[in-house]
Write a structure and sequence with these properties.
The protein is α/β, with parallel strands linked by helices and 155 residues long. Helices cover 19% and strands 14% of the residues.
């Protein structure tokens, strides 16, 4: 094995590229029009032809505009009493704990992006649940209270 010498050090092959010198004579292959063909819009500098379809109406103008998503919208998650009952039957719910937004998020009933939680009375509930929600229907509150639980509405 030969020793490393300073005069033998070279770059890896292909690691350095020489820049194209355009417009430097016919013999270079990129003389006269510099590889841009003949005259016209595409041969000029500083002109973008993006989305131009040769006089035809561009696709971004042909397609209809639809929908709107407000950045200030308040996302309300819905929790039904039947969902709470099915979690209790599955053994995932402890009825002694207060079910607030954090707890309902951990259980998978509410997604993280939800700003508010509303309790609705779809399905029946048979255990004493302690709930803290932002809104609740009157029927849901009476269903939880008749089962021995309580609902605290914060908003």
């Amino acid at each position: 094995m030969s020793a490393l010498k300073l005069n033998d050090i070279r770059d890896n092959p292909g690691s350095r590229f020489t820049r194209k010198r355009v417009g430097r004579g016919l013999g270079s292959g990129l003389g006269k029009t510099s590889g841009k063909g003949q005259k016209g819009q595409k041969a000029r500098s500083g002109i973008a032809v993006r989305a131009f379809e040769g006089g035809q109406m561009p696709i971004h103008r042909r397609l209809p505009k639809r929908g709107f998503k407000s950045h200030n919208s308040i996302v309300t998650a819905v929790v039904n009493t039947g969902q709470l009952q099915s979690l209790k039957e599955a053994g995932l719910l402890d009825e002694k704990k207060m079910l607030d937004q954090v707890m309902l998020c951990e259980l998978g009933l509410v997604k993280k992006g939800a700003h508010r939680i509303k309790l609705l009375a779809k399905g029946d509930i048979k255990f004493a649940a302690q709930l803290e929600v932002d809104a609740a229907s009157a029927k849901a509150v009476s269903a939880v209270q008749s089962a021995g639980g309580s609902v605290k509405v914060t908003n």
